[in-house]
Design a protein that fits this description.
Helix content of chain A: 25-40%
Radius of gyration of chain B: 31 Å
Number of domains of chain A: 1
Largest interface: A-B, 26 and 19 residues
Oligomer: heterodimer
Number of strands of chain A: 10
Structural class of chain A: alpha/beta
Distance between the termini of chain A: 22 Å
CATH architecture of chain A: 3-Layer(aba) Sandwich
Mean pLDDT of chain B: 82
Helix content of chain B: over 70%
Strand content of chain A: 25-35%
Number of strands of chain B: 4
CATH class of chain A: Alpha Beta
Strand order of the largest sheet of chain A: 6-7-8-3-9-10
Low-confidence stretches of chain A: none
Largest sheet of chain B: 4 strands, antiparallel
Order of helices and strands of chain A: EEEHEEHEHHHEHEEE
Number of helices of chain B: 9
Number of domains of chain B: 2
Structural class of chain B: alpha+beta
Strand content of chain B: 5-15%
Number of helices of chain A: 6
Shape of chain A: globular
Mean pLDDT of chain A: 94
Order of helices and strands of chain B: HHEHEHEHEHHHH
Distance between the termini of chain B: 25 Å
Bound molecules: adenosine-5'-diphosphate, magnesium ion
Chain lengths: 216, 287
């Protein structure tokens, strides 16, 4: 679970987030909607503990932003998947290697890695492209690879920062469907988007954010 | 810790392939620096060996007035043996001197001469602690001052010359050592900076998916060690070839123990590892 309590975040002389309270329970689907610059990405980065709050507490699973040590952060990241608008894939490697990367990084065994990579690639419908190079893939396929990588370590939550920002409407629909499928299998999803039309079809809890504050 | 070493090795090799030019440049510069250093190490080692051997054999020969009988020499020998800095004084009779001459030159002066031409002498061994040129000269002067001593011959001059030159050799060694140190640290660090910056995205993704710092660092440390060991290994080979060639013309001039030959390689690996260790930490913080 994720518990954000009275969080404020200040950077570069700007108050970026103010008085944020947010609770994401296990298995929930939460959409974070707000205009560009509202502070959505910053909020997701706080959950990933890439940044720490200026004031308040972020609790993610057993990790607490007040007491977290540098050595704990990798462990937290394995339990919190993250996908982005720009996919963040390694273009010079194939699909398999990109997904396996997340498992190598955790020191998993080769045989475990192989099994798990095939499993998550099947889950996102990309088994047949496992040896394709990233540059040969369409945008939707790239996002599927990124999702497979994010799920490789069986996170309890998937953070999605504008996951469909670079995709056409048909592909957007497919990716949203995939996120819903992942959610119904038990992984919580926290998706940030500036398109409020996107979340109308989703059975999700919608949280609106405006100028760094959660608004009703 | 089940972090996969094979993975790190593969990543290390990949990283070097990506920064081929700078890896090549670093490796070859380390090789050149360590070759120079290795050559001077061998020279120093052998010079030291020669100095030691000369010093081992520092002997003063005190020639006694030929009119004296052998019996009269004993008190003189005892006086010399009692001098400060003298460890031993041995009487060498004319017959013994002749025997030595025969041994040393395989020649018998008695074949052409009717009489043994060699004088009586007292062979003086100097204390190991008193073997600088000045000290030996002092002892020689004191022996000359003893009555009935005709002349004192010694090899102090050679020791003095070697001592004088060895000072410069050590200085060159020290300078070369710092050259090697600086080039290894600077170049390895620079290559790593390039590699890490080129790998910025991969490193960010590693951090994103929860790779531990040690795991992220390892390929770059491997890269550093590899460059150093390769550069040093090349240097070891070149040094070996250089002295093997010299030995063809001047056999037995240089001794080349294998630990000495392997030093450039070991030193290269060690310094490069150290350089990588320092710079990886610094550059990872900038990613
Ligand atoms: N490190 C930072 N220093 C200064 N300003 C920042 C920093 N990070 C984010 N911001 C600013 O905070 C605001 C919110 O950014 P962001 O969280 O990326 O918004 P969103 O994802 O909703 O578009 C923006 O105005 C951005 O410029
Ligand atoms: Mg954003």
């Amino acid at each position: 679970m994720i518990q954000i309590t009275d969080v404020w975040y200040r950077a570069g002389g700007n108050q970026i987030l103010s008085e944020i309270n947010l609770h994401v329970k296990r298995g929930e689907f939460v959409s974070l909607v707000g205009a560009s610059g509202a502070g959505k990405s910053t909020l997701l980065r706080l959950i990933h503990m890439a940044i720490l709050p200026t004031k308040g507490v972020v609790r993610v699973d057993r990790f607490n932003s007040r007491s977290v040590k540098a050595g704990d952060i990798p462990l937290l990241r394995r339990k919190v998947g993250f996908i982005f608008q720009d996919f963040k894939l390694l273009e010079d490697r194939d699909v398999y290697d990109n997904v396996a990367f997340a498992l190598w990084a955790t020191g998993a065994r080769r045989s475990t890695i192989k099994k798990r990579v095939f499993q998550v690639l099947a889950g996102v419908g990309l088994s047949h492209k496992r040896y394709a190079r990233i540059e040969e893939l369409s945008g939707g396929e790239k996002q599927r690879v990124a999702i497979a990588r994010a799920l490789a370590n069986e996170p309890f939550v998937l953070l999605a920062d504008e996951p469909t920002g670079n995709l056409d409407p048909v592909t957007t629909e497919e990716i949203l469907k995939l996120l819903r499928k992942i959610n119904t299998r038990g992984t919580a999803v926290l998706m940030a988007t500036h398109k409020d039309g996107l979340v109308k079809t989703l059975p999700s809890q919608v949280i609106k954010i405006k100028e760094g504050r959660i608004v009703p | 810790m089940s972090l996969n070493l094979l993975y790190s090795l593969r990543e290390g090799v990949l990283a070097m392939r990506r920064s081929r030019l700078s890896t090549l440049w670093t490796t070859s510069t380390i090789a050149v620096a360590l070759t120079l250093f290795g050559i001077f190490m061998v020279l120093t080692f052998n010079l030291q060996r020669m100095i030691d051997s000369v010093r081992q054999h520092v002997v003063l020969e005190a020639f006694v007035d030929a009119s004296l009988g052998e019996d009269a020499v004993e008190p003189i020998r005892a006086t010399i043996a009692g001098l400060d800095g003298v460890s031993e004084a041995v009487f060498i009779s004319r017959e013994q001197a002749l025997a030595r001459f025969r041994d040393a030159f395989g020649d018998d002066p008695m074949l052409v001469l009717d009489e043994n031409p060699l004088p009586m002498s007292i062979e003086v061994q100097v204390d190991a602690a008193q073997r600088t040129g000045a000290q030996i000269e002092g002892i020689a002067r004191r022996i000359s001052g003893i009555e009935c001593i005709d002349e004192v011959a010694y090899k102090g001059g050679v020791v003095e010359i070697i001592n004088h030159w060895s000072r410069y050799i050590y200085l060159i060694d020290a300078v070369l050592f710092f050259l090697v140190l600086a080039s290894a640290l600077f170049l390895v660090s620079n290559t790593l900076r390039l590699t890490i910056m080129a790998q910025k995205k991969a490193i960010q993704i590693m951090q994103l998916v929860g790779a531990e710092r040690g795991f992220i660092r390892r390929p770059y440390l491997i890269q550093g060690i590899f460059q150093g060991a390769l550069g040093g290994g090349i240097a070891s080979c070149v040094v070996w070839i250089v002295f093997a060639l010299i030995s063809l013309r001047l056999p037995a001039l240089f001794e080349l123990p294998s630990w000495l030959l392997l030093t450039p390689m070991g030193l290269g690996a060690l310094l490069a590892f150290w350089g990588s260790e320092i710079s990886v930490n610094r550059f990872l913080n900038d990613v």
